[in-house]
Specification:
6-stranded parallel beta sheet; 15% strand; Rossmann fold; 434 Repressor (Amino-terminal Domain); DNA-binding; elongated; 46% helix; alpha/beta; 358 residues; 12 strands; homodimer
Chain lengths: 358, 358
DNA sequence: TTGTACGCGTTATCAA
DNA sequence: TTGATAACGCGTACAA
C-alpha cells in the first residue's frame, strides 16, 4: 500500500525485454540463454544469467507456447485398475514436469472398449489436449492400437514397463522376470515347496512377465515344487477369491505370491476367513510396494518397484526426445525385495503333511 | 492419404479467424461468443456456433492466456497426511478443471515449518505457477498464515472443509459435527456403552469438529456412557498405537470410532494383536470412505464423504468467482454412514462386564 | 557470435 | 450490437 506504484516488482512478472535491457543485450540473446541454444559466449551468458536472477525473471509459458511449437504440456495415459499405482505414477510424473516447467495432464482410456471407441477416446484426448507427448502406463503400454494411433498421428510417446515390441519407443522399466524370480527364490530359500501364484489380468504385459519369471525360477530350483495358480485382475477382491481357491487346494500352499500388492492384501482376507494365520500358516509376498503393503497387517513382504521414479524418468525421456530427436533409450531401474512380516519359513507340520501326501 | 492436402482439418487446429470468415463476422464477435460476453444477438450467436462446430474449433489456451489476464490454470494446495484423501481430491478437482478447459497444478506445502519458510514456499508456488486461484485442502484450509498471504497478494481461493473463519472465503464442506454425531448415534443404537475415540492431528480443523460432534451426541444420549480418547495423526501407524492404548483400558471399549479410515485400518491391526475379533469383540467405525475402507478385512463401516465431488465443486466455485466477482458461497454437500462388516452389536459378555465394573 | 523484424492466436480498446 | 487495430511475451528466419 505505502510502497506505491510499481506492482511488477512484487509479482515477479518481468519480461524478456526487461532482462535484455538490464543485461545490455538483445532480446534474442536472452532467448538463447533461456533455451540453452548454442552460440552463446560465456560472458554474454554470465550477463544474462545475472540479469535473470536479479529480476527474478520467469519466462511466460503461454507466450512461449504461442510463439514456439510446444505446448509445454505432457499427458499421462492410464487404464490401470490399481489406484495405488496410479497415484504414485501421477506424483512421480508431476514432480518431473514441474521441475522442467511443464504442465501435466492425465487421462483415462478404456482399452477394453472396441477399437472404434478407443480411437475416438484418443481423438478426444489428443484434440483438446495440445500435448507435446504422452507417457503410457501399463496396460496401455502394450496396446498396439494405441501405439499405432500415436505413431500414425506423429505423436511422441514413452512407455512404462512395456512387455511387447521392445525398441518400438523409449521406455522405462524394471526387470520383471528377474524380480519375480527373486521372489520365487526367496520363498524357496525359506523352505516352501507348495506354492501358490495369483496372476494378473491377461492383457497386462507385466503380469505375464512376472508369472513367467516366477515359474521358471521355481522349476529351475526343483522339479518337485508344487505350484497352484489362480486368476486375478490386480484388484483387492480378486485376491480374496484367488486366495480362497488356492487355500482349498490339496496339498495346501504354505506360501503364495501375488503379482501385485492389492491382490496380496486380498489374500490376507482369504487367510483370515480360512482361520489361517499369516505368516505362521501361510506366507504372502506381493509386488509393487505400494501403500497398501503397509496399510494392512501384517505388513506385506513385496518387491519394491520405484513407480514414482519410473514415471519421472519417463517424463524426462519424453522431453529429451521432443527437444533433440535422440534415438530411443530404454532405461532399466532397480527393484528390490522388501522383507516384512507376511513371510516366514513354513511350519514344521507343513513339511510332514507334504511327505504324507506324496 | 487419398484425401490429399489439408492437414489442418485432421488435427482440428483452425483459428478464430477461420471461424470468423466462415460465419461471415468479425474476430471480435467470435471472441464474444466464446467468452459468453453480453451484447450478442441471437442470430450472430447461431451463425458463430454453427461455424465453430463445423470447423471443430477449439480455442488455443496459450493464446488466450497471453492476450487475456487469466492463465487458465488453478492450483490445488495440500499438506495432507492421508494419501487416499489426496488422491481423491486430485481426481475430483482434475475432472472439474478439464470440463472447464483449465489446467490444474498441485503443490504441497509444509505448514508446520516456520512462518518465514511457509511464506517462501508460497512465494515459490505463486511465482512460477501463474495460477488464477487456489483450492485449499485441510489442514491448509485453517491456516491463517496461508489465508493472510493469499489475501495480501490478492489471490482468489476456495477452501474445502474449513473449521475456522466461516465466511472468509467461498467453501465446500460437509457437516462434520452432524456426521460424527451420526456415527455416535449408530454405535449407541447398536448397544455400545463403552466407547473409544481416536482423534486426528490438533491443527486439523475437521478432526476437532468430528470429535466435538461425536462427544456431544454421546453425552446427550446418556451420561453413563464411558468414553476413552486416544491421540492420532490421521496415519495408519497412529491407529495401531491408539488402538493398543484404547484396548488396554479398563473397562475395554466395545466400539471405537476413528476420525479417519487410515487410523481405523490401524485399529484393525491393534485388535489383531490383542487377539480381538472385529466386529465380535470390538466394533470399528471410520471416516471418509476412502479406498482403504474396502482394502482391509473386514470392510470398514465409515462415514462417506464425497471428497471427489467436494474438490470438483471447489474448483467450480473458484472459477465462478474469478469470472464474475460473486459473493462467497458455502456449499454443503451430503454425507452418509456406510454400514459394512466392521461393526455389530456388542457381545453379551460385554454388557455383563460393564455392570460388573460399576 | 549477436541482433532485427515479424508472426503466433487471442483479448482489449475504442470507434462505428 | 458490431467491428478494426493494437497489444500480450516470446521464438524463428534471416541478416549483420
Amino acid at each position: 500500500m505505502t510502497r506505491g506504484g510499481s506492482v511488477s516488482q512484487a509479482t515477479g512478472n518481468s519480461t524478456i525485454a526487461d532482462v535484455a535491457r538490464r543485461a545490455g543485450v538483445s532480446l534474442k540473446s536472452v532467448s538463447r540463454v533461456i533455451n540453452k541454444e548454442p552460440h552463446v559466449s560465456p560472458k554474454l551468458l554470465a550477463k544474462v544469467s545475472a540479469a535473470i536472477s536479479e529480476l527474478n525473471y520467469v519466462p511466460d509459458p503461454a507466450a512461449r507456447s504461442l510463439a514456439g511449437q510446444r505446448s509445454f504440456t505432457i499427458g499421462l495415459l492410464f487404464d490401470n485398475p490399481s489406484p495405488h499405482y496410479t497415484m504414485k505414477a501421477i506424483i512421480g510424473a508431476y514432480r518431473a514436469c514441474v521441475a522442467q516447467g511443464y504442465h501435466m495432464r492425465f487421462d483415462t482410456l478404456n482399452s477394453r472398449s472396441g477399437s472404434a471407441l478407443l480411437s475416438s477416446q484418443l481423438d478426444a484426448v489428443v484434440r483438446n489436449g495440445r500435448t507435446d507427448g504422452f507417457v503410457l502406463t501399463p496396460p496401455l503400454t502394450d496396446n498396439r492400437e494405441v501405439l499405432d494411433y500415436l505413431e500414425r498421428h506423429n505423436i511422441q510417446y514413452v512407455r512404462i514397463a512395456p512387455a511387447i515390441d521392445p525398441g518400438r519407443s523409449a521406455a522405462v522399466s524394471i526387470d520383471d522376470v528377474a524380480a519375480a524370480a527373486q521372489a520365487a527364490q526367496y520363498l524357496c530359500d525359506l523352505g516352501h515347496r507348495i506354492i501358490g501364484l495369483v496372476n494378473g489380468p491377461p492383457d497386462h504385459g507385466a503380469a505375464i512377465t512376472r508369472r513367467q519369471g516366477f515359474i521358471e525360477r521355481l522349476k529351475s530350483i526343483s522339479p518337485d515344487i508344487v505350484l497352484h495358480e489362480a486368476k486375478g485382475d490386480f484388484l483387492f477382491e480378486s485376491g480374496i477369491s484367488a486366495g480362497e481357491a488356492l487355500l482349498s487346494e490339496d496339498p495346501r500352499p504354505t506360501a503364495i505370491f501375488a503379482t501385485n500388492d492389492d491382490m496380496a492384501a486380498g489374500l490376507l482376507v482369504a487367510c483370515g476367513r480360512c482361520r489361517l494365520v499369516v505368516p505362521d500358516d501361510v506366507s504372502l509376498v506381493g509386488f509393487d510396494d505400494s501403500w497398501i503393503a503397509t496399510s494392512v497387517w501384517p505388513y506385506l513382504t513385496t518387491v519394491h518397484q520405484p513407480i514414482e521414479d519410473m514415471a519421472a524418468e519417463a517424463v524426462q525421456l519424453l522431453l529429451a526426445q521432443t527437444k533433440h530427436g535422440q534415438p530411443y533409450e530404454d532405461h532399466m531401474l532397480d527393484y528390490h525385495l522388501v522383507v516384512r512380516e507376511s513371510s516366514s519359513p513354513p511350519a514344521e507340520v507343513t513339511s510332514d503333511e507334504r511327505t504324507a501326501h506324496r
